[in-house]
# Entry
Amino acid sequence: MPSSAYDPACLPDLLPLYYRRLFPFAQYYRWLNYGGVQKNYFQNREFSFTLKDDIYVRYQSFSSQSELEKEMQKMNPYKIDIGAVYSHRPNQHNTVKSGSFQALEKELVFDIDMTDYDDVRSCCSAADICSKCWTLMTIAIRILDRALRRDFGFHHLLWVYSGRRGVHCWVCDEAARKLSAAARSAVAEYLSLIKGGEETVKKVMLTDPIHPFIRESLEVVKHYFPQYALQDQNILGRKESEEKVLALVPEDVKKELQEIFQEERNPERRWRHIEVQAKKKQQTAKKRQYFEKEIMLQYCYPRLDVNVSKGVNHLLKSPFSVHPKTGRISVPIDLTDVDKFDPFAVPTISLICEELDRPKADEDEAKSEDTKGKENEQDSTEKRKIRDYKRTSLAKYVKYFDQFLAGMADSWKGKLLKQSDLQKEF
Amino acid sequence: MQFPSKKPKAVTDLKAELYSQPLQFYGQPPLENISLSEFESFAVDRLKLLKTVENLGVSYVKLSDDYKKKLDNEIKTQNFPHGAGEQTEKRRKDHISHFILRLAYCQTEDLRRWFIQQEVDLFKYRFKELECGEKLKFLHKNNLQYNTISAEEKDNLREKLATSSYTASGVKVEEQDFYKVPFQDALDLVRTRKVYLEEGYVYIPHNEIVTIVLNDFRTRLSKALALTARSLPAVHSDERLQPLLTHLSHSYLGQDYSVQKNVGKISLEQIDSLAGKSFPLCMRQLHQTLRDQHHLRHGGRMQYGLFLKGIGLSLEQALQFWRMEFIRGKVDADKFDKAYAYSIRHMFGKEGKRADYTPYSCMKVILSNPPSQGDYHGCPFRHSDPELLKQKLQSYKVSPSGVSQILELVKGMHYQLACQKYFELTHNVEDTAFSLSHPNQYFTESQKVLGGGKDVKRETDTLQRPQENSAARGLTREPAGDESQHLAEITKNLETDFQDA
# Structure
C-alpha cells in the first residue's frame, strides 16, 4: 500500500501492534547498552514519551530491556525521544539532591531540517519535501559524514531519517559520547558555514586561504550543484531567483552579469559566466574573491541546528519512533547507497502493520515450530517478533541497524577484553 | 577551600615559590591568614578588573592595541601585577583575589560561565604579554609538554597545514614547529577552523600554542569551580563571609532587570507605540516581525518575551499578548495552549525548575545563540548585513550623517556603542550619561527621557520640558542638510503631543 493510506486517526490502533510485534527492541537495547562496558549506561538513560494529545512525559528510564518493552507496550508513545545518560536514574531525579542530578554523556547528535533551507529552495517550503529538495539532505549526509570520520576520527555514525523532513546523525563512538558541551559546540561550529538569520543576505563568507575542510565540502557540492541547483531548482532560470543569486556577487560584477543575462537565458551557460567573472575578479582584485564558491555553499551546504548538537542533555527523536504526522518510521539510512535513499519509500506504520496480516509462505512451518517449542515460551515470542518484522518492509532498515551494531560490537569487545585483562592484573 | 593556614612555617617558602612567576595556573589555593578588610578589597578590585575585561571585550577587538592599552591601564590602576620585575605583593593579590572570586562565582551556571570567560580573557592577555623565555618557563613549570610532529610528517601535510591557518604561509610551515594534540585540547582553534584537523588530532603551529594553554586553563578552572561549589556549604556557614560573597556575585551583571517593580504598569495597547518610541532596535525588529508574521521562532520568543516581562508585562498579559498574535497566524488557540503557553509560563518561572528567568543582556544577545535561518532575534547591529541595517535606520528616519556614524561604529565592532548612538539620535540627546549594556536599560532610559518613566500609562499625554530642550539641542548639532526635514519631524511630534494634552 502506498503511504497515502496512513491516517493519523488510526495511530492509537496501530501503535500497540507496532510495539508488540514490530519494534526491534533487542537491537535497540543492544545499541543503548553499549556492550555493558560502562555500568548503568542503559539504566541511567533518559527517554521521553509524547503521548496522545501532546502529553509530554520526560525523565523515563528503564532497568532492563524487558522493562522498556513492557512500558512502551503499556504507554504506546506517539513519539519517543532519547536524552542523556545521567548521574542517577532519571525516573528518580526528584529524589536526589538538586544539582547532583546531572547529564553526563550522550551521543554527539546532529539535526538537519529542511525548513532551514526555505530561502534557497523553490520547490517546496516549510514541512513539505519532494524528491528535488531531498538532494540537500544527501549533500548534507555526504559532507558531514566525511568530516566526522576523516577530520574528527569518529567511526560509528548512525544516520537516521527523521520521518518527515530531515535527517539525524548519532555519533556513537565512546569519545563522542564523552564530549563536553564546549567541545560539542566547537565541533558544530567547525561544521557550520552558513551564518546569519533573516537580516543577512550573504550567509557564507570565505576567507583566504580556504581551509581543507571547506575544500573537501566544496568537492561534494560541485558534484551535485549542476543537476540540483541549475536544473532541478533552476536558480538562474526565473527572474526572482536570479536576482537572489545576483545579490550575492560584488556590485560591479552584478551589473556586468545583468547585461549578459539579458542575452543569455540558458542556466548552465549563465552559471559559466558567473564562474568566468569570478576567475577574472580573482586575478585582478587584491583581496581574494570566492563569490561563486560562496553561492554554491549558500545554496547547498548543510544547515545545522547547532543548538541540538551543543547540549549534552538535548533530546532527539529516537530511531524507529513513528512520526505522528506522516506515520513514517524513523529508519536508519544505508550509507553505501545514500543517493538512492527515498524518503517517500520509507514504510509507514499502517503499511507495515498491514503487511503483518498478509499470509506468508513459511507461515505453516512457523506454526509447527511454535507448537513444539512450548518449553521455552520467552524464546519463542522473541523469535516470533524477529520473524514478524522480517515479513514487512521494515526488514531492510533493521538490517542496516544490525550492520551498524556489528561495527560497534567490535569496538566494545576490545574494550571488555582490556577491562578483564586489567582485572586479572590486580 | 582552606584559607586558615595549618602550616605557618611552610608559608614563607611557598610564597616565594608561588610568586616567583609573573603568571600562574592557580593550582594551589592560598594558605595564609588574611584580614576581612583585605579579603573584601582584594575581591572588589579583581571584580572591577574583570568587569573591565568584559566591557573591553565588547567594545574592542580582543588584543587589539586599544584593548591592550586600556586593559594594561586598568591592571595598573587596580594594582595587579604587570610587566616584569619584583611584584610579590601584587602577585599575592592576584592569587588571593582569584580564589575569593571562585567562592563567589561557583554557585550557578551563569556565574561560572561569566567568571571563566573573563578569567580566560585576562589570562590570555597576560600570557601573550610574556616574553618568549618566560612563556617557555611557564610551560615547563606547569608540565605542559606537547608532541611536535616529525619533519617527514610535516612534509606530507605541508599543503594542508599551509591552508589551515591564517598566519602560516607555505614558507613558514618549514620554519615552525607543529604540535599534534587531540582536538578536545584546542577547541577554540577547531571552532574557528584555524588549524588542520585529521583523525581527531589538530596540528597547531607554534605561535598558536596559547590556545592549548588557554584551553587547559579553562578546563582546570571549570573543574575547580565545580569542586568549589560542592564545598560551598562549609563556607556559607561562616556568617562573616556569606553576605560578602553573595554581594560579590550579585554585582557581576549590574542590574539584571528581573525585579518586578513595574508589573502591570503597561497595557497591551501601549506596546505598539512603545515599540516605536522606546524599544531598542533588536526588540523593535522582533515586535515588527511578530506583528507581520504572527509568529516568532524560539530564540525570538525568548529574547522578546523576557524583555517584555522586564518592562512590566504580567504573566497573564504575556499569555494574552502572544496568544492574540499567534492565533492570527497558522496556530490555533488549542495548539497555542499546548505548544507555546508552557514556554511562556516557563519564562515566568511557573514551570519546569521554576527558575525566574532574567531578560537577556546585550552581551548575551550579541554573543550567544546567533540567529540562523528564519530567526529575527540577535542584535541588529551585530547580526544584520550593513546594507539592510542602513535601510532600516533610514526607514526609521535616522539622518544620513547619523546612519554613517552608526555604521562606522558597527564596522569597528562597537555594537553597544552603535546602539547607544541610535538612542541618542532617536531621542535627540547628546552624550547619554549611561553606558548601555541591556535592552531593558535602553527602555528605562528612553522612558526617562520621554518623561514616561514615572508613570508609563500617562506617557502620551504629558509633554516634558526636558524633551523639548533636548530636541532643540539636538537640532543645533545636526548638519545643515537635513535640518528642515528634522524640524518638520519635531514640530509634528509636538503638535500631536499638544493635541493629546
